[in-house]
């Protein structure tokens, strides 16, 4: 019988990388569903750029 090392506790999650991968996936889906190239405005909408700008502008400094 073969023994395998336990996986618990050794996994490292990079939350920024995971978020970037998710956004790339959404962008790929939007591009494949479009009949033509995505406009810059469409890309910003998919990537939620406007939402982030509003949050940043509204945040107290």
**Taking Cα atoms only, what radius of gyration do you get, to the nearest Å?**
19 Å
Strand content: under 5%
Total number of beta strands = 0
Mean pLDDT: 83
**Series of secondary-structure elements, N-terminal to C-terminal:** HHH
Low-confidence stretches: none
Helix and strand content put the structural class at mainly alpha
The shape is flat
Which sheet architecture does the biggest sheet show?
none
Helix content: 55-70%
Number of helices: 3
Layout of helices and strands:
Layout: H1 15-33, H2 40-46, H3 49-58
Short description:
The chain is mostly helical and 61 residues long. It has helices at 15-33, 40-46, 49-58.
Write structural notes for this entry.
By secondary structure, the chain is mostly helical. It has a domain at 36-61. 59% of the residues lie in helices and 0% in strands. It is built from 3 helices and no strands. The protein has helices spanning 15-33, 40-46, 49-58. The radius of gyration is 19 Å and the shape is flat. The N and C termini lie far apart (60 Å).
